[in-house]
Amino acid sequence: MSALDSDILRSAFRRASIEEKVPEPQWREFAAQMIRDFTGFETVDPDFVEWTKSGQVNGQMSPKYLDHQLECPYCLTIRLRIPADAGPDTPISCDDCGGYLGTWDELQTDFERQGGRNGVFRLDIE
Fold first, then answer.
1. Under 8 Å CB-to-CB from 92, ≥6 apart: which residues?
2. pTM for the whole thing?
3. Which of 21, 67, 71, 99 has the largest count of CB atoms under 10 Å?
4. CA distance 18 to 72
């Protein structure tokens, strides 16, 4: 499965689990069934199921994707509305749906915890 297909499947799982109000204890089986439906294979890799439902494998976050507080829990996008004069206590919202994400300081801390200063992503006020 390509990285793009994997990312699409993970995004589809996240949206579907929210829209269908799947209880968290059922996420693993829900993700596994989505993978089976998508691939047509009955057997699925348990690590891929875990990554699909949580973004983690063996308790470690995948280094390829940003999420945590940066991802909007309401619409599942990573688009922040950051005022030009943002200070540490400035509230930051999702640019797509307007949902509250946290303070500028909390989001910067979360971004750095995910390796944000050493990767291909930047989090700046422009």
1. 80, 81, 82, 86, 100, 101, 102, 103, 104, 107
2. 0.46
3. 71
4. 12
